[in-house]
Amino acid sequence: MRRMPCLAVPAALLIASGGAFAQQAESAGRQPTRPTSRQEGRPPMPIIDVDFAGGTVREFVKAVQKAAMESAAKTPVNVMFPAEAADVRLEAISLRRVSAETALATLRFAFGMQGQHQFDTTNMTGDGDEGLTFALRYSTGRGGQQTAAQPPFTSQVEAIIAQAHSLRDLITTPAGLPQSDPSLRMSPDTVLGALKVAAELEAADSRGAPAQLLFHPDTQLLIARGTGRQLQLIVDVLGQLHRTMEQRREALAQSETRARKAELQMVELEGLMGQAKAQLERATSELRPAQAEVSRLEQLVASGNASGTDLERARANVDIARANVRSADAHLVMLSKRREALERGLGDVQPSAVEAVVAIYDLRDLANFKADFNAIVKQVIGDDGRMEVRPISGDTTGSLVVRAPRDRHEILVSIFNIARRLKTNEPKLPGQTLEQLIEKTRG
Questions:
Q1: In whole angstroms, how large is the CA radius of gyration of the chain?
Q2: Is the separation of the CB atoms in 332 and 273 below 8 Å?
Q3: pLDDT in tens, 287-297
Q4: Cα–Cα distance, 32 to 124 (Å, whole number)
Q5: Can you give the pTM of this predicted structure?
Q6: Which among 405, 391, 394 is positioned nearest to 360, based on CA atoms?
């Protein structure tokens, strides 16, 4: 760390809060001593509140000086610092009931112990002084020196924090759903691949390091480490993957519910058809004796051994029996048609996610991340699909042509849309649907 001689500081770098002390220090011409604790004969230390909305080191020092003069002690505060530190940008700082020395010492922690800028504060006040004097020592860290010509405070100096996310709901199939169906869960590699693409896109836009990702298989926890903005991006991507998986599981659950309902209806219909067949058989069995009775009575009437009234009654019974047969037969036909319709419906509600379709993913505007997207495709489609590269006119990088089941395409489309939104920095950018990609492929 470069040390700054106390007496060889240019006058332009001395910021004083009051003129009396500056005149005394100039006339005395001596080097102040460095006290290690508060001693008798020194000015009272102001207790201050500081609400700094963000800005440069110079502006923060002025805010501390102003608060010191407005405190009960009203002690002037003089601060020396190198010219290159004056325009270093700070985030907002809010302090309550602290000493002026503590307020200045907070600069040491403004960028972290290994941050881009390093500050250290030394109390230079001597016995008999009427004002306080502090020296700020400044050096640049690994991020390099920042000057007034550089952009304002960026994510390079944002605080790095860590978050843990459970991936259990994504990588395991919930109870009550088919555990053997791979479309109802994602592999950890698929999830991490999607997060990696998002993190690298964000890092490319912000010209910083991407968020760090670590998956712990035993606990199924994802540990993400990065800035607040990077961690919010991780939350957003995980949320999108959760919504995609929930939609698929809900669709399958609804399909299975419809299938179970149709099966129950089929069981009930089979019972009704059994009853209808029995009624038809009974009506048919009643028709034959009625017809035989009519033939017998016709012979008796012809020989004069029976009356015409008996014959008419027998013929009426035949008509009733025939009507019963027609009614039973019509009821059975109606039930048979209902069964045929229900069987067709059962075929419709079966999951269609296994149907393999072809879709082209145009990666011309994501060429730098094509290898990552390629790896994600391989992880998602597994052994159920085939991937190839087919160049598009004017595209030297090629685009991915994926043949896979629909449920696997849904994951890829979700990741594809997330990557596009990150690239354009438009969170609400409308995404493409699988049907749109398929239609474009066919065209």
A1: 43
A2: yes
A3: 889 899 889 88
A4: 6
A5: 0.40
A6: 391
